[in-house]
């Protein structure tokens, strides 16, 4: 089954499975990789952008490492603190007083799979090589931010920065991916690292490449005999001897394969498919023990308005559009009720309900809007309970009844649909109504497109949003586009339904997305916009909050305080409309392995393509006699 080096174009057909008879199920975990066709299956060099290779095929989950990990959920108890793991680093980052220098102490006793010891020289080489090599993932970040990187001794790295940055360590902190450390002894001998396939890869993780499909539909990794000499192995032993990643599997076949025992972990299904399989097979679990089953991703789906479009520059208009929406209808249309709502601009996932949603409930309940005609309190803390009651008739006891469980599954609350208040806000903004059509202050019809992806829950959500606005006199039409992300990045849209906020999830710091909200990053119309401020919102009060966060330590409790200030400013301005977490219907089978993370034991994000998922393999166990 071993494939040779070189380019091999993947097949277009449905992904196949290797000969599973060779791999005892008590020693083997089989994982669904959501990547589709992998065009360059024999490429394992992660430091060349755009090579057409797979990355979530086990490569970045099992063979790479960097200084720290931040899990979107709570993290393994005893191995992480506030969801932060010291991985290759032996302790947290150490900055000087003004955050212009950072020192890192490294763990000792870590070895690459070819027997060479990992040292500070590897980290220094990684930074210097990428800073000097356009086309590598962190070329821009390192060349712009690092003035000097040195190794004072074998296990210490020292950075001098071009300007103070209290979040520089985030470049080496895995949330989805991060700056993976390169094996210096391998890459220093490669003349052109952008054309080097690294087949087979030298691993700093506890697994090495066993074999792979030349057509790129499966990859098999085998546990190193010296797994203890890796950062992950120092936490606990990875239990599977083999981990198989399979990709390019249709939704229907994922269901069939997990039922047949040929998959243990599935990245995502449709809501309907999940509801069906967990009811039919008691060995299959979702994140929640019952409805809604799905895991709330640390991303927040929103109605994103383009603030460079005059139609959306008055906050009264944006609030009016929010108050026209019906949270129950949006939840049912998109996720069939399995949505986790958020009225504030923080995803309702990981530890965020503890740090943001719960503490702000009283503030939200008392929040008042002056429509120009009346004052209204728009927040409804019982929306989640109402949705739970709506789906209980179909799903019965699978729907939680405990108030805390309902909040965790369905969210803490959302805005009441209040058409009269919305109309008062539009009137105060100078709009008039001609029959059932709202007219802008200049007398032209208030019309705009609502951009949605081609399929999936976000497509469904966008369609119901556009329909709801249209029913209430707004000329909104859903526009399906295959390149919503590309258009959003350059501001070629009016309103887009997508996630606009991504957070660490397991850590309360909001800098992951907030730093890109600074007005200094807002591009001219038509120019590419830095990720996560796609609405192109400028506000000096927002800049002030961001600059305060930049000036404090990552773990400073004031970070949560400033995060609350951001939530309240966002609430006042409603630059975009927060709606719900991007829930992922990840499922696992307990037929051969057990101990998977779930809402009651939330030690790891269960989606299969994130690097944080590596810690799952230290916590699961084979089922006796299976």
Which spans have pLDDT < 50 for at least 5 consecutive residues?
1-11
Q: What would you call the structural class?
A: alpha+beta
CATH fold-level label of the largest domain: Dipeptide-binding Protein, domain 3
Note the beta-strand portion. 15-25%
Summary?
The protein is α+β, with helices and mostly antiparallel strands and 626 residues long.
Could you please describe the fold and organization of this structure?
This protein has a five-stranded mixed sheet with strand order 22-21-23-14-24. A four-stranded mixed sheet has the order 1-11-10-9, with no helix packed on it. Helix 2 (120-131) packs across helix 3 (139-145). It contains 18 helices and 27 strands. The longest helix has 16 residues, at 558-573. A hairpin with a 5-residue loop joins strand 9 and strand 10 (218-223). The protein folds into two domains: 20-264 and 588-622, D-Maltodextrin-Binding Protein, domain 2, CATH 3.40.190; 295-584, Dipeptide-binding Protein, domain 3. With 626 residues, the protein is α+β, with helices and mostly antiparallel strands.
């Amino acid at each position: 089954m071993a494939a040779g080096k070189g380019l091999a174009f993947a097949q277009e057909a449905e992904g196949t499975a290797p000969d599973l008879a060779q791999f005892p199920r008590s020693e083997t975990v089989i994982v669904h990789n959501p990547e589709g066709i992998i065009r360059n299956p024999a490429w394992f060099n992660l430091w060349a952008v755009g090579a057409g290779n797979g990355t979530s095929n086990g490569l970045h989950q099992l063979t790479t490492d960097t200084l720290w990990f931040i899990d979107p959920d709570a993290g393994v108890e005893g191995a992480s603190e506030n969801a932060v793991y010291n991985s290759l680093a032996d302790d947290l980052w150490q900055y000087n007083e003004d955050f212009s220098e950072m020192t890192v102490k490294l763990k000792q006793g870590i070895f690459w799979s070819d027997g060479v010891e990992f040292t500070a020289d590897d980290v220094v080489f990684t930074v210097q090589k990428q800073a000097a090599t356009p086309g590598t993932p962190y070329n821009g970040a390192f060349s712009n931010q690092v003035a000097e990187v040195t190794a004072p001794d074998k296990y210490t790295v020292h950075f001098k920065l071009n300007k103070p940055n209290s979040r520089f360590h985030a470049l080496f902190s895995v949330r989805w991916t991060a700056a993976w450390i390169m094996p210096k002894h391998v890459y220093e001998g490669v003349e052109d690292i952008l054309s080097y396939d690294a087949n087979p890869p030298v691993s700093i993780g506890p697994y090495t490449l066993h074999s792979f499909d030349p057509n790129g539909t499966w990859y098999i990794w085998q546990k190193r005999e010296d797994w203890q000499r890796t950062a992950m192995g120092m936490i606990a032993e990875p239990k599977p001897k083999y981990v198989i990643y399979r990709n390019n599997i249709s939704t229907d076949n994922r269901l069939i394969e997990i039922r047949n025992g040929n998959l243990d972990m599935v990245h995502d299904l449709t809501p309907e498919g999940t509801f069906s399989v967990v009811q039919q097979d008691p060995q299959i679990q979702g994140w929640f023990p019952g409805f809604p089953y799905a895991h709330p991703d640390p991303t927040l789906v929103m109605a994103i308005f383009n603030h460079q479009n005059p139609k959306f520059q008055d906050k009264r208009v944006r609030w009016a559009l929010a108050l026209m929406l019906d949270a129950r209808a949006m939840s049912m249309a998109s996720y069939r009720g399995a949505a986790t709502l958020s009225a504030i601009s923080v995803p309702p996932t990981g530890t965020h309900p503890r740090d943001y949603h719960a503490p702000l409930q009283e503030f939200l309940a008392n929040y008042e809007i002056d429509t120009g005609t009346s004052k209204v309190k728009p927040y409804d803390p019982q929306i989640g309970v109402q949705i739970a009651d709506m789906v209980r008739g179909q799903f019965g006891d699978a729907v939680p009844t405990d108030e805390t469980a309902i909040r965790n599954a369905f969210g803490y609350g959302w805005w009441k649909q209040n058409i009269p208040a919305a109309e008062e806000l539009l009137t105060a903004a100078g709009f008039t109504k001609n029959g059932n059509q709202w007219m802008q202050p200049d007398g032209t019809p208030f019309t705009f497109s609502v951009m949605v992806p081609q399929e999936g829950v976000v497509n469904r959500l966008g369609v119901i949003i556009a329909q709801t606005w249209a029913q209430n006199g707004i000329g909104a039409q859903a526009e399906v586009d295959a390149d919503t992300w590309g258009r959003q990045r350059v501001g070629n849209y009016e309103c887009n339904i997508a996630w606009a906020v991504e957070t660490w999830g397991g850590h309360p710091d909001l800098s992951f997305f907030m730093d890109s909200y600074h007005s200094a990053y807002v591009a001219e119309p038509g120019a590419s916009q830095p990720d996560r401020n796609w609405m192109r919102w400028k506000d000096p009060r927002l800049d002030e909050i961001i600059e305060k966060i930049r000036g404090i330590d990552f773990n400073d409790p004031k970070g949560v305080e400033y995060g609350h200030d951001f939530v309240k400013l966002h609430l006042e301005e409603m630059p975009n409309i927060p709606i719900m977490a991007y829930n992922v219907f990840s499922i696992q089978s307990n037929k051969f392995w057990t101990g998977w993370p779930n809402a009651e034991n939330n030690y790891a994000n269960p989606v299969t393509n994130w690097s944080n998922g590596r810690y799952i393999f230290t916590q699961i166990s084979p089922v006796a006699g299976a």
